[in-house]
Structure prediction request, 407 residues.
Amino acid sequence: MKNIITDFKKIDEFLTRGVENIYPNKEELKKVLLSGKKLRIYSGIDPTGKLHIGHSIVLKKLRQLQDLGHEIIVLIGDFTATIGDPTDKMATRKSLTREEVKKNTIDYKKLIGKILDLKKSNIKFLYNEKWTNKLKSEDLLKLASYFTVSRLLERDMFQERLKAGKEIYVHEFLYPIFQAYDAVIMNVDMQIGGNDQMFNMLAGRTLIKKMKKKEKFVLTVKLLVDSTGKKMGKTEGNIVNLDEEPKNMYEKIMLWSDDIIKIGLEICTNMPIDEVMKLSKQLKNKKFNPRNIKMRLAFEITKIYHGEEEAKKAEQHFIKVIQQKQIPDKLSEFIVSKSRLNVIDLLFKSGLVQSKSEARRLIIQKGIKLNGDIITEEKDLEIPKEGIVLQRGTKRFIKVLRINKKH
Prediction:
């Protein structure tokens, strides 16, 4: 690896784009980055599920530092995932088994490689089960002695639970302690994470100061939230996973509310910051349609994970099928032998719905179409030789073809 890059413009963008807070402060970190000192930086990912767009925000900050020549550690929290991070949770997380954790990590490296350069020598993957499981009782007692109950109780979600009369379990107290221990074991100079992880990361900063007598920088990134502060996430059901198919990824982003476009351009794309600022200004101008800017956002994000050609195809599919409400050229086929079938039976047998009750509910909600027209009632459908096209919502189509039985 070449010497550390101290380009002022690149460092300034790292310290500002998508950044929420820096501890102890921005000036101190900037001074170190400009000095040419090689830093060891890490971010942890608990494998509680699939990697999603929220993870990418942190990974993109790590990529900036990797390109500057610093040492990057992606820590897979295969131990801490079994505890469950209580951050923002009003109820205790369900504990995961080792098997569940292992299953969740299967595609992690492949997807992380869409953002970080895995071919370079300044990146490594570590797993905290390796050292945490070696802790003895006396080690745990010593670690716990560095923290106070009053300090741990300062966490917002714990305060909310207490006010609501809900329980706080001891293992939830231990989560930030174990995460802090990760920083000590790896002897890092810096940690990067979402702003919702600030408490956990600052716990690591406190512990490394006490045990190693050294400073640990903490950088928190902005979260993908709407104007009300509501976070995009698994719990909210509006997250975009990094392994989404191109068309699904594009369409899911187009379902985001308009007030997410600006922050999305800043923290989820690789667009030059000048262009991000230009598009953000256009959002305030009524002459520009927010939908067009959101389409650019969807294209740029899809391009990162699937390449430009697939992103173009996803955009064309969206324009044709969603905007212009056209039927796709290639459709799955379902073969029938009768010329007349009840729509409920046909929807169920073709697999467009999981049950007949779901079929009835979707018809009432005007969510089923026949050859592009909304079906408004339960009825029998004529199946001509050339077939019909049934559509559920905006994305699911099936062509029903009729063939005569041979006697």
Summary: The radius of gyration is 26 Å. The chain has three domains: 8-221, 246-323, 333-402. Residues 265 and 276 are 6 Å apart (CA to CA).
